[in-house]
Amino acid sequence: MSYTPAMPANSKISEFIERAKTSGAPDQALVGILTARGWPEREVYDALAAHYEKLTGIEIPRRGGSGTAAKDAFFYLLVFATLATWTIALGSLAFTLIDRWLADSLFSATYYYPG
Q: Which of 20, 80, 76, 86 is closest to 48 using CA atoms?
């Protein structure tokens, strides 16, 4: 039974990995060499996964989610809470400045009592 990966890796990387693995090169050395030559680390690891899938004939299981949903939710909550705090503070400052610049004489804090 042969397995065909869903996303084929870059052919240049795949060919290099095939030849290097037959020579006995370790995976970390291949990742280091290819990333040093400008290949994205994600593509290199995808090519290694494709190599092992082809070698074993078994699909490498993928994790269901991205794993960062909770972290992203917390980050967005923090960002929106900060935005709300700054918006309320800015509005309060604006109303305070308007009250000082355009003071209403009927509601003045200083009273004059003729007496």
A: 20
Six-digit token string for 6:
């869903």
What is the DSSP code string of 28-77? HHHHHHHHHTT--HHHHHHHHHHHHHHHHSSPPP--SS-S-HHHHHHHHH
As averages over each run of 10 residues, the pLDDT of the chain (115 residues) reads 50 88 91 92 90 89 73 93 98 92 73 62
User: Under 8 Å CB-to-CB from 27, ≥6 apart: which residues?
Assistant: 48
What is the DSSP-derived secondary structure letter of residue 8?
Answer: P
* Cβ-contact 47, 10 below 8 angstroms: yes
